[in-house]
Design goal:
The structure is a single chain. This protein has about 350 residues and is an alpha/beta fold. It folds into two domains: about 120 residues, no CATH class; about 200 residues, Rossmann fold (3-Layer(aba) Sandwich), CATH 3.40.50. Helices cover about 35% and strands about 25% of the residues. The strands form three sheets. A six-stranded mixed sheet has the order 5-4-3-6-7-10, sandwiched between helices. It has a three-stranded antiparallel sheet with strand order 1-2-11. Strands 8-9 form a two-stranded antiparallel sheet. α4 runs antiparallel to α5 and α4 packs across α9. The longest helix is centred in the first third of the chain and has 21 residues.
Length: about 350
């Protein structure tokens, strides 16, 4: 267990209630002065004091001060003070999977609904939802490849990163599948692992940049299998400009039609000793991939898992309750039984 010593309030908005404290103090001062003026209007102050032998000037002030401190402590308790951030090393039996997602402009083609890129995100999210003790990472690529999320067991972060992906993330357009595979291999780290490792590549297969087959073979030699999900249709589809009804055109003014290159996808999967599946609007590809992933060897994986902050509101609440109990037993007027203890150093009167 590792603790980063940090202090915070989980419900920090509750601290706005502290602004009521000065108002209460001002109200109490106004009320006290008003009572004093009322007593003074009754006549001689010494005579009034003699007529109220059990009256106390200190006790109401002490009771108010205790109530004020108790209220302050309760506000802090409601704000939920937390101290320390816990992280725990958990050992899991699982595999390691890097997702390599093509985000080139051709992935905006709408031959699968709603478009290739959005359908690819849906597939990856469903695969992540079926994982329990595995690690996942995310690579995005177009003309270049980048690590979007290092390999982790934090599925919430993985899905969050997926939701924000768009072609605008990479300015250099193209489809560098080989670079994506090499970046995925590096993202596993240099340490050897007994856990099964796989790269799931989602692309339309229009590779224009590098030698994807050589990269897949190199991954296989390191014990990493390469699975390819082809997305799109072989007959192709034009590439729309987002937010418009127009399509991308080449230099001659012809509408660009992006086609799924299934031959390339199959060759990459074969070179990486993996499986090629074509993704459509059904869950066939997800079931096929899940079946293959289940055949990979699992191994004990150590993972740093965020546990949470340690709650400290109990201390504030207990102190507030103690003060309220003390306040309850302090009477506004003098008690004859307890008068001889003289807690408040008031002058005893002759009986």
């Amino acid at each position: 267990m590792v603790n980063d010593f940090m202090f915070r309030f989980a419900n920090i908005q509750m601290l706005w209630l502290l602004t009521a404290i000065p108002v209460l103090i001002a109200g109490y001062i106004w009320y006290t002065r008003r009572k004093r003026r009322q007593r003074a209007s009754l006549g001689d102050s010494a005579l009034v004091e003699a007529l109220m032998p059990n009256a106390s000037h200190q006790r109401p002030a002490v009771k108010f001060a205790i109530l004020l401190v108790a209220l302050t402590l309760l506000i802090f308790a409601a704000a939920r003070p937390q101290y320390g951030k816990s992280e725990q090393t958990i050992k899991r039996q699982g595999i390691e999977v890097m997702f390599a997602l093509d985000i080139s402009n051709s992935m905006l083609a709408e031959d699968v609904a709603p478009n290739r890129l959005e359908r690819a995100k849906q597939v990856l999210i469903k695969l992540i939802d079926k994982m329990n003790d595995d690690k996942v990472g995310l690579i995005v690529f177009a003309g270049e490849a980048y690590t979007q999320l290092p390999i982790t067991a934090d599925y919430v972060s993985a899905k969050m990163f997926l939701s924000t992906i768009s072609p605008e993330l990479i300015k250099v357009q193209g489809t560098a599948i080989g670079d994506a595979i090499n970046t995925s291999v590096r993202s596993f780290g240099s340490e050897q692992s007994e856990a099964g490792r796989a790269i799931i590549l989602i692309t339309d297969g229009e590779n224009h940049e590098d030698d994807a087959l050589a990269a897949a073979k190199a991954a296989r030699e390191r014990g990493i299998r390469v699975f390819v999900v082809g997305i799109g249709k072989p007959e192709g589809s034009p590439i729309p400009y987002p937010g418009t009804n127009t399509f991308r055109k080449d230099r001659q003014g012809n509408v660009v039609v992006s086609r799924l290159n299934e031959d390339m996808c199959r060759e990459i999967a074969q070179a990486g000793q993996g499986l090629y599946v074509r993704c459509d609007n059904t869950n066939t590809a997800i079931r096929a991939l899940q079946k293959e992933l289940d055949t990979l060897a699992t191994s004990e994986i150590e993972t740093q898992v965020y546990v949470g902050y340690n709650e400290q509101y109990q201390t504030f609440a207990m102190l507030a309750l103690m003060l309220l109990a003390i306040e309850f037993f302090i009477f506004p007027r003098k008690n004859k039984t307890l008068a001889r203890l003289d807690f408040f150093n008031e002058n005893k009167r002759a009986s």
